[in-house]
Write a structure and sequence with these properties.
Number of helices: 12
Shape: elongated
Oligomer: single chain
Helix content: 40-55%
Strand order of the largest sheet: 2-1-4-5-8-9
Low-confidence stretches: 234-241, 549-558
Structural class: alpha+beta
Length: 616
């Protein structure tokens, strides 16, 4: 185990700023713009990160160094921000100098490294107990890549941006299959178990060779079987029949013929029924058409009657206003001369005719209703007939016809067997052998297909999901999370789901809280396996934006429920790692045993900020 004892920053004017830390829980708190986030940047910088904020001109930084304690010995790491290349150009520096321990000293590169300057990640892996170079699976094709600290540093070093992010803290942009960061999962499983799943040599380079060898073996087997068949077939045609006698074969053929006859009879009956139903459909369609024609006739007649009523009504209404009009002298129909009595008779006739037509319309409506009802009944009957015919045809297609085809095929097979019994036996033997071998090949191909891709979800379920879920429930309960129901780790998104909702549906404060919880879950899981672990957790602003819902009003207010619960958990579970919390405001709880560092942003009062002499 190791821990960071000291962070030291050297400015361009030789001002030295020192931050002392202790093993266990360290809390650095105070107002914004005091350099709290720069602490994480410095640590990341010494793990090989870019830490671009350290290069801000106003900070005037020249060198960053840290001192760690490992197995009781102090080891110092120093990294200048800039260096000059061979051309005299000033460039960012990628070399870290390590001293203090004979086992770990010299220059190390933050990049790929060389014999003169080996890669920095090897030092950090050695510190974590990983002595040999390790390759882990980086994608679904089992591509191996070197395990480095940068592969999983994002799981224990969370800056403020990642803290409130919607994505899982396990995601680092490398080796994805959909939502699963394969490199990260592979590194965590290795840290937990020491297993890379590359021990059997099943790599992209070997997969092709293995597959080609299997295919070649299968091809050789098939060729041997075909050659054996050719040799046997020459002599089999004149050989005695197989174990079944001619009479037995004939009995089998007779039985098949009887079954074929019965099936054909059933097929004929079904076909006749289908034809009869088809005729019924034609007759029904004819009656429906006739009914629709008659209905159209009724509709046209009713239209005519209604027009007659309108015309006769017009005449009657004209008579009602006859006092306002000149005396009618001529009949409107024949233009003959009319006396007054004749005119009145014409109007009366119109009224009487309207009455007759209305009765006709009434009768017509009844007839129309009857024909509509009859058409409806015919349509319903038609649907029944259609369904019956479908069932009959389905019975023919799905049962009778396949049966006929099978029986006829069997008949042909038995007939051939009767003539060439030995040849038939040989064919059966060949088919059996070939099918057995094909089954073996298919099984091997299926296994090959299954094993040809890295089943990362299965590995998550096997090694990580159970402890992840267990610690997730435990930590949420101890932290008094307000919606604890249904908490789980979802292997499909590699993130926590609480209350049936994914983290991205939550606000910044709750996302930061859940990201912190997942980081703690990872730490506790690795500690439980007790193989390899980073022994370090740095969290920048885990509760800064956290606002909880007030039960009475439903509004979001800043409370100490979950905030205090989170800090109490970290106080009571600070063993086996160094935890560094960077936060503006902290809950009012008992911090006994915690290393507290207060940036005040006040002159002459404790520490103003991280960098000595710097004022924003």
């Amino acid at each position: 185990m190791y821990y960071i004892k000291e962070i030291k920053l050297l400015s361009d004017v030789d001002t030295v700023s020192v931050l002392n830390l202790k093993n266990g829980l360290n809390i650095v708190y105070g107002p914004s713009i005091t350099g709290k986030s720069l602490i994480l940047d410095c640590i990341d910088f010494m793990f090989g990160g870019e830490a671009k904020r350290l290069y801000k001109k106003e900070l005037k930084l020249r060198n960053v160094s840290i001192t760690i304690v490992h197995d009781g010995k102090e080891i110092s790491l120093s990294r200048a921000l800039h260096k000059k290349n061979k051309k005299g150009e000033v460039k960012p520096n990628n070399v870290i100098t390590i001293s203090g321990d004979e086992n770990y000293k010299g220059s190390f590169s933050t990049g790929k490294g060389s014999k003169k300057t080996p890669p920095l990640y090897k030092f950090w892996l050695h510190i974590m107990g990983i002595e040999d170079e390790v390759k882990i699976i980086s994608d679904m094709d089992f591509t191996p890549n070197n395990l480095t600290v940068r592969t999983f540093i994002h799981t224990f070093l969370l800056n403020e941006t990642r803290m409130v992010g919607e994505n899982s803290i396990l995601k680092n942009g490398q080796g994805y299959t959909k939502n699963i960061p394969i490199s990260t999962i592979s590194s965590l499983i290795y840290l937990a178990t020491g297993n890379t799943f590359l021990k059997d040599g099943f790599t992209p380079e070997t997969k092709g060779t293995v597959l080609r060898e299997k295919r070649a073996a299968a091809r050789r087997l098939v060729d041997l079987s075909i050659n054996a068949l050719r040799e046997e077939k020459v002599t089999s045609l004149e050989a005695p029949k197989d174990g079944r006698s001619i009479m037995e074969l004939q009995d089998a053929i007779d039985s098949l013929m009887e079954e074929i006859s019965g099936t054909e009879s059933a097929l004929d009956n079904a076909s006749a029924k289908s034809s009869e139903l088809a005729k019924d459909l034609i007759e029904i369609d004819k009656r429906i058409s006739e009914g629709e024609v008659l209905k159209n006739h009724y509709d046209a007649l009713r239209t005519q009657y209604e027009a007659d009523i309108q015309r006769l009504t017009f005449i009657a209404e004209g008579d009602m206003h006859s006092d306002l009009l000149p005396q009618m002298d001529h009949c409107p129909f024949c233009n003959g001369e009319l006396d007054k009595e004749q005119s009145e008779s014409c109007v009366e006739a119109a009224v009487a005719e309207v009455s007759k037509i209305e009765k006709k319309i009434k009768d017509l409506k009844q007839a129309d209703s009857d024909i509509i009802a009859e058409i409806q009944l015919l349509k319903e009957k038609r649907q029944v007939v259609i369904e019956q015919r479908k069932e009959t045809q389905s019975y023919i297609r799905a049962e009778l016809q396949p049966r006929i085809n099978r029986l006829r095929k069997d008949f042909l097979d038995y007939s051939a067997a009767l003539e060439h019994a030995k040849a038939s036996e040989l064919v059966d033997t060949f088919n059996r052998i070939l099918n057995e071998q094909l089954e073996v090949i298919n099984a091997e191909n299926q296994e090959e297909e299954t094993n040809s891709k890295y089943n990362v979800r299965a590995k998550i379920n096997e090694f990580l999901k159970e402890p992840f879920n267990r610690y997730l429930a435990q930590i949420l309960a101890e932290c008094k999370y307000e919606n604890l129901t249904g908490s789980r780790f979802d292997e499909n998104i590699c993130d926590v789901v609480v209350g049936g909702s994914e983290k991205m549906s939550q606000g910044k404060g709750f996302r930061a809280f859940l990201n912190t919880i997942l980081a703690l879950v990872v730490q506790e899981t690795l500690n439980e396996y007790n193989m390899f672990q980073p022994h370090l957790l740095v969290l920048d602003s885990p509760i800064l934006s956290l606002k909880e819902r007030e039960e009475t009003t439903g509004t979001e207010v800043t409370t100490d429920g979950m905030r205090s619960g989170l800090f109490k958990y970290m106080i009571s579970h600070e063993q086996n790692r160094q935890t560094i919390i960077l936060e503006n405001e902290i809950p009012n709880i008992d911090y006994t045993g915690v290393h507290m560092i207060h940036f005040t942003k006040r002159e002459g009062d404790e520490m103003y900020g991280l960098i000595k002499g710097y004022r924003d």
